Amino acid sequence: MTAADPSVVARLERERERTVHRLATLRGDFDAIVAASDGSNADDEHDPEGHTIAYERSQVDALIRLAERHLEEIDEGLRRVGEGSFGVCERCGEAISPERLAVRPTARHCVGCASARRRQG
User: Fold this and answer.
1) Whole-prediction pTM value?
2) For the stretch 38-76, what's the b/e string if a residue is b when 16 or more beta carbons lie within 10 angstroms of its beta carbon?
């Protein structure tokens, strides 16, 4: 899988479609949770179900933020394909292995640089 490979764009576009669909579903779930608790006079602190509602709302919100970030990464990957820098490590300038891109098509760093970044914190 190389930057010139049309399957790269197709794969990123399929992943983008799935992520947009997932975001729509999650936002609908979030709205439903909010709507369900909106009509009640529930006090999260004193209502036995309150903690569950707050927890569910928080979990769905976190999933929405993760999906939004993933969508940004996909769009960034498509931008890199367009400018010809897809598959090149942003840190060292070396090619990102096809195996890494197969597993993580939005990768911006080679395995060595990604490992070094994680160790640095």
Assistant:
1) 0.80
2) eeeebeeeeeeeeeebbebbeebeebbeebeebbebbee
